[in-house]
Please model this.
Amino acid sequence: MHQSAPLALTCLLALATALCSAFASAAPPEQQLQVRIGYLSYRPDPGPLLSNIIPEPADAGLQGAELAVVDSNSTGRFLKQAFTLASTHVDSPEALLLAAKAQHDQGLRLFVVNAPAASLRALSAALPDSLLFNAGSPDDSLRSSQCLGNVLHSLPSRAMLADALAQFLVLRKWQRALLVVGQTEDDQAYAAALRRAVKRFGVQLVAEKTWRFDNDQRRSAQADMPLFTQTAEYDVVLVADERGDFGEYLPYQTWYPRPVAGTQGLTPTGWHKTVETFGAAQLQKRFEAQAGRWMNDRDFAAWMAVRSIASAVSKLRQAEPRALQQLLLSDQLPLDGFKGRKLSYRPWNGELRQPIPLVQPRALVSTSPQEGFLHPFNEMDSLGFDKPEVTCGYP
Amino acid sequence: MRRPLCYRPVLFPTLLAGALALATGHASAATAWVSNEKDNSLSLIDLQSLEVTETLPVGQRPRGLLLSHDNKRLYICASDSDRVQVMDVATRKIIKELPSGKDPEQFALHPNDRWLYVSNEDDALVTVIDTETDKVLGQINVGIEPEGMAVSPDGKWAVNTSETTNMLHWIDTSTQTLADSTLVDQRPRFVEFNQDGSRLWASAEIGGTVTILDVATRQVLKTLNFQIKGVHPDKVQPVGIKLSADGQYAFVALGPANHVAVIDAKTYEVLDYLLVGRRVWQLAFTPDQSQLLATNGVSGDVSVIDTKTLKVLKSVKVGRYPWGVVVTP
Model:
């Protein structure tokens, strides 16, 4: 499998050359449009984790962007458009900014960023004439109160994920929830999104507890969970533990025998191995042949970002950042994301409208928006920040 | 993809009727063959009683189906088995397997009844197989995720759609090479030539449109949009297309919109939307074209549509995720 991918690519390239010469004789020669995309990655160290058995892939995101470049060149070779990716992975926010400026100096104006919100803000300010795709930060403020005018978000916000989950809780009539929150800022942010979602959709929080790992030292985390979750009765335990420190030890260990959902258990996510319908199986296979592992939500966000650029370029036949952004924010370019709906970017905050899969490790449980959650214009806008909720100006 | 209407074989009654009668208990009724993508089987529907009479195990993830011109051989894209299986219609036995290349999804048979054009979804290839010698005649590089296939009635063109590249690829069958590519809307799924081969209809699942092209110039004549009351436009995702032999109607399966669109094939006006099952995929006419069958992937059934009254008559439960459908007389 791994051997055949480069071979197939070589064949494609060979054919593209043959085609170009064939076309050259038929039509007046047209200048090839070179579209160079920068991929900027910085992921801070999550710190020591109690549950560290299955690590996250180090190249999450990058593999998605690389596959999307191959996919996009398949159309590009017929339209005389060539997409290339310049990727950088660094280990500090300062280095990321320097790397971005270096790419900008080389003429790049389109960037896919896989970095925390603070880095994205800095990049957005430093590259005002560029178009950035956020494929790394689920931060809610970037989509509600502190919009970044030159950024489109292909990774779903925490609010979208939490809303997707809350709709499912309502569907299943799990109306009482216990919320368990970790200690990091990210965990607090995820918990805030869950609080917003349960309030929006009418789920009651019976209690909220912070996991401090100050349990009885004679017991393991697993053994401590039953007592830790002994509160007023609930239908579901919601957990906010983004880096996967303790949450994996909650399922099957709760005081009441109830499901666990959130960052562990039943999880809302932008993408997962178990997404297979609407042509997703083909994307999954292509990705696995290239990367040798499963495609995750960051890979999908980066893939979607590059595909958004390429779809807009193939329609406009140019790569000017403002023109691309304008088209992507209009309703003139339905995007294909293998999710069963036409995807598009919300004009009020630049976030990608997309269905959110709810998964457990080996099965797709459901996909939100759930049927019956209506919206005056687009049901997908029942997930995340809708137009009236956004207080910042965009773009 | 052309219908076997004009090929109703002379030999049929003597050779096959006996076997069919034994197998199904109905001597004269036509039979619909439905591939069940997630059951690795075919469901056979007797079109007189509208009941499933047989379920046949086949290769993994069966999708595209087509018949030889004499209706004696059924070709089955067994996608996850990476082969095209050939079933003897009379005995229901797999008589051979063709070297289709990886992940065959849809295919089309050349009017010479020999050359099979197969789209290899995972390899961005179209494979051409001689079904008599079982030899691969050629492989043509096309866009990413090749899907729909059709051969023009005069045999000159084989047209393939690539779902991620968003193009129609025109293959010159005299040289088995790519001659031209046409950009259409997002995720083109299916192509169908009209009876005289002057027009090509192509559906775009994410674009939500059907494009009609002039075959001589390979230029777009018209792009159709669909609006169904009470159905969000995002759910309108055209897939299968069938054109009636009299040139009057085009039928388009609209996927998760759960409707089949009826179009005036001359004026390109959308006449009606017929409610069928969930996520309608592919379509097939009965031999006299009085009925149209539609496979509904998610609800696991086949809708039977009366093409005169334009009413849905019945829904027949089949296996899991029915995908392709063809009809033998």
